[in-house]
Amino acid sequence: MTANTHERHVLRELPDWVWYAGVSVAAILWWLLYNQLSPFSEWVTSLLPVTRDSHAGEAIAFFVYDVPKVLLLLTGIVFLTGVLRSWFSPEKTRAILAGKREIAGYPLAALLGVFTPFCSCSSVPLFIGFVSAGIPLGVTFSFLIAGPMVGPVGLGLLYGLVGWQIATIYLVFGFTIATVAGFVLGRMGLERYLQDWVRELNAGPVGEVPEETLTFVERLKIGIEQVREIVGKVWIWVLVGIGIGALIHGYVPEAMMLKIMGGEAWWSVPAAVIVGVPMYTNAAGVIPIVEALLGKGAALGTTLAFMMSVIALSLPEMIILKQVLTYRLIGIFLAVVAVGILAIGFLFNIIM
Amino acid sequence: MKTVKVYGPGCKRCEATEQMVRETARKLGIEVDLEKVTDPKSIAMAGVMSTPGLMVDGKLVHTGGLPDSAKLEAWLSV
């Protein structure tokens, strides 16, 4: 056995109470650390050869405050989400969605998109699985849009960094876009634009779900595994995102921010969406940037449009799905979602 | 002898699952005919929607994430 697998075997055989105790202690530690963030960042900044009020001072304080904060939030959210999602699976979701009338399917799919665990590498089998179960294409799209956009990680970070009001607004908007865009796409009869072999497929009977009952401790372990995997994958993006956010926070003059991203310029929303398309990062990387932008006075509609564009219009995801979708379908998909994001961006700038 | 198929397009967890199966089989002294399926069409046809997926003797026993080692032993020993 390799050392790592051996360690895993030993860990997995620890009695249940150890896991409960461990998680409880971790939770308490988390809470203590979280409350010490502001004093900690001020202290570190004071140690460095910069004046607190200078550009550099501002940028550094932002960075030192946000890095542990985001990492802590991420750890907590990913853990809780991992545990919560252990009750869901793509197979169960597929079984649930397969029987539903189309109109109910859209919001349901969007909702399930948030709670169902799935990694990008399973995008293709999942897509095929849904389509072959007779789930309407539009409903499948609602699912695929909602997942990354309204993911708990994004919501949790928004809540932690810019407050519950904005997080709630984002949730409502994201959910609406997922449902409506899916509906619009569904109406367009896009099945003919699927790759040929997909249309001819019939993948496994619906309802044959491998029955695995999980104990609560097993769910906790899943949560921990998720933390290890996701935070391990994402922490670099977090650092880069916070670095950019710190630079914006410290160095971009408010006047310039208002000119580019204030609600006045009509072109700021489309520009924000377009800029977001080629950008590849996840929620954890982009939200610190959002935080910095909003802090500098960028309009809320424009900023949220940017965020949604970065997360939902994901080129890497499209590249993976290219195996099942033709270019035309990908283009239509991106266009519909982009229009939805634009609409929300404009609407929100007008309302606020 | 057991026929085991590991479904996965080649991400880290799929590789790890294949490793786990080999090692568990060796530990239990069970002979396995292990096949790794990476083609997305075949993966979907087997009813696997979250990889890695594990099929033992034609029955789909696990999908999504690393399998639990105790359960893996049970599936291989049946």
Q: What would CATH call the class of chain B?
A: Alpha Beta
Number of strands of chain B: 4
Order of helices and strands of chain B: EHEHEEH
* CATH architecture descriptor name of chain B: 3-Layer(aba) Sandwich
The main pleated sheet of chain A reads as:
none
Question: Which SSEs are present, and which pair or pack?
Answer:
The complex is a heterodimer of chains A (352) and B (78).
Chain A: H1 3-12, H2 16-35, H3 37-47, H4 55-85, H5 90-98, H6 102-115, H7 123-132, H8 137-149, H9 152-162, H10 164-187, H11 196-199, H12 216-251, H13 254-261, H14 268-276, H15 283-295, H16 300-312, H17 315-321, H18 327-351
Chain B: E1 2-7, H1 12-28, E2 32-37, H2 40-45, E3 53-56, E4 59-63, H3 69-77
Parallel strand pairs in B: 1-2
Antiparallel strand pairs in B: 1-3, 3-4
Helix pairs in contact in B: 1-3
